[in-house]
Write a structure and sequence with these properties.
This protein has one domain: Rossmann fold (3-Layer(aba) Sandwich). The strands form two sheets. It has a seven-stranded mixed sheet, with helices on both faces. A two-stranded antiparallel sheet has the order 4-5. With about 220 residues, it is of the alpha/beta class. The radius of gyration is 16 Å and the shape is globular. Helix 2 crosses helix 3. Strand 8, helix 5 and strand 9 form a beta-alpha-beta unit.
């Protein structure tokens, strides 16, 4: 069953895009969160690229006292992984697959798509990317982690075994602790993925050097 399409903000670097970046925001944010940096991260791209910023569904978030906010899945515990909302994660995975299918229908093959995300969006990027049966151009995970980490080996598909993965994290992150991101990096590397690891002296945020590194990464995978 195909998931309904999410509401999205879209920015095209030029008409008739042949490539796409599907970029997921973090908990409590929305599609506008990363749109302002598109002019910077799209510098030097040689291919017409559509940046797609979907809005997460509104739902109650347990660790925030049940407050309703944009979320890709519920957060049940402060350590993020002791108890996980597997059903919510898998529902958002289907929403990601529906967005990929829409790009395919618009003439952009999966091999020309980069999945990207911040925090919860990073989690969904990694979760979905390793399970996709079609090869992606790349994955980009910012200030996040790999959810359902113990299931990744059994559920991953071979299509993205050699897809480059850009991972970036702040060493002072109080929301997703650095050790959680490092455990995700180590797991992905142990499974044979090509992880390009970056850390920055920042909290749960994005910094100018990271934006430059994102731009450089996109130039290597959007070709």
């Amino acid at each position: 069953m195909t998931a309904p399409l999410l509401d999205c903000l879209e920015i095209e670097t030029s008409p008739n895009p042949t490539h796409a970046v599907i970029w997921l925001h973090g908990l409590g944010a929305d599609a506008n969160d990363f749109a302002p940096i598109v002019p910077q991260v799209a510098q030097g791209l040689k291919k017409a690229t559509r940046f797609v910023f979907p809005n997460a569904p509104m739902q109650a978030v347990t660790i925030n006292g049940g407050m309703v906010m944009p979320a890709w899945y519920d957060i049940l515990a402060m350590d993020l992984v002791r108890r996980e909302d597997a059903a919510g994660i898998r529902a958002s995975e289907q929403a990601m697959r529906a967005l990929i299918a829409r790009e395919n229908a618009r003439g952009v093959p999966t091999s020309n798509i980069v999945l990207a995300g911040f925090s919860q969006g990073c989690a969904m990027t990694l979760h979905t990317g390793v399970r996709l049966p079609e090869k992606l151009a790349g994955m980009m995970g910012l200030s996040g982690y790999l959810p359902l980490i113990d299931l990744a080996d059994a559920e991953r598909q071979p299509a993205n075994a050699d897809t480059p993965i850009f991972l970036a994290h702040g060493i002072f992150d109080p929301v997703v602790a650095l050790h959680r991101a490092e455990a995700s990096r180590d797991k992905l590397q142990a499974l044979g993925y090509e992880v390009r690891w970056h850390t920055y002296p920042m909290p749960h945020a994005v910094c100018p050097q990271e934006i430059d590194d994102i731009r450089d990464f996109l130039q290597t995978v959007i070709v």
